[in-house]
Amino acid sequence: MKKYILDLTVKQVERISPKHVLLRLTDTAPLPEMLPGQFVEVRVDGSETTFLRRPISINFVDKEHNELWLLVATIGDGTRQLGKLQAGDIVNCVLPLGNGFTMPQKSDERILLVGGGVGVAPLLYMGAEMKKSGIEPTFLLGARTKADLLETDLFKHYGRVFVTTEDGSEGEKGFVTNHSVLQKEHFDGIATCGPKPMMVAVARYAHRADIECEASLENMMACGLGACLCCVEKTTKGNLCVCKEGPVFNVKQLLWQI
Fold first, then answer.
1. What is the pLDDT along the chain (258 residues), one digit of tens a residue?
2. How many C-beta atoms surround the C-beta of residue 77 within 10 A?
3. I want to staple 122 with a disulfide (CB 3.0 to 4.6 A). Which of 57, 150, 153, 185 is the partner?
4. What count of other Cβ atoms lies within 10 Å of the Cβ of residue 209?
5. Could you tell me if 177 and 106 are in contact, meaning their C-beta atoms sit under 8 angstroms apart?
6. What is the rounded CA–CA span in Å between residue 179 and residue 183?
């Protein structure tokens, strides 16, 4: 897909938790086509310690209002600077980058979308696109506590939502792979994004259940174009740049111990 460098305008900033902000960006021209699972490299202005762009998953594309949503975890100097943006500010973005999830083609396919923490971000757009094509997804979202769950009300617009929290404050207590829905129902495919230990556990479950599974990796990325080689992942096809060949991989390609 063609890549663009765009100065996007901040339309709205919503703080959805003490650690997370939702940026809604827009442009005077229609936004380019973007796929679920792709990401954006965002330039951080006004920071003396941040020299590289920050890779942010595409959380949602609202074509009706010409908006790109970015869910940002404000955990470092660069992302904290992004969290200070206000409506009317300009954000320079390179987009869309990487390869997205494989979208199901049959209306009767049962697809499970598993996310943890801010890794839920790309699954909202994927679920919305699935719903648009007549396929209702099942979401399985995990977090440490109820306060750490993100966008659950939005996910409910597009499919069934199941939740786990490590402390049991919402949904079932435990990790996503402990949820009872995995024992009660069969799925034809799984897409997952979140902390690596969670994704490895999901991949292990998929392997044992003989289910196709794709994972969106969160390796450290700098350029987003496969030039700097800092996001290399060892795969069955050799060392691949996650930003260019991924970030979405079939877990069978990954050299994980599952």
1. 899 999 999 999 999 999 999 999 999 999 999 999 999 999 999 888 888 899 999 999 999 999 999 999 999 999 999 999 999 999 999 999 999 999 998 989 999 999 999 999 999 999 999 999 999 999 999 999 999 999 999 999 999 999 999 999 999 999 999 999 999 999 999 999 999 999 999 999 999 999 999 999 999 998 998 999 999 999 999 999 999 999 999 999 999 988
2. 12
3. 57
4. 12
5. no
6. 8
Residue 123 structure tokens: 């699954």
First-last CA distance in the chain: 33
- Predicted TM-score (pTM) of this structure: 0.96
Please give the single-letter amino acid code of residue 20. Answer: H
CA distance 86 to 23: 9
The per-residue DSSP string of the chain comes to ---EEEEEEEEEEEEEETTEEEEEEE-SSPPPP--TT-EEEE---S-SS--S-EEEEEEEEETTTTEEEEEEE--SHHHHHHTT--TT-EEEEEEEESB-PPPP-STT--EEEEEEGGGGHHHHHHHHHHHHTT---EEEEEESSGGG--SHHHHTTTSEEEEEETTSSSSEES-GGG-THHHH---SEEEEES-HHHHHHHHHHHHHHT-EEEEE-----SSSSSSS-TTEEEETTEEEEHHHH-BEEEGGGB----
Query: Measured between alpha carbons, how far is 136 from 133 in angstroms, rounded to an integer?
Result: 9
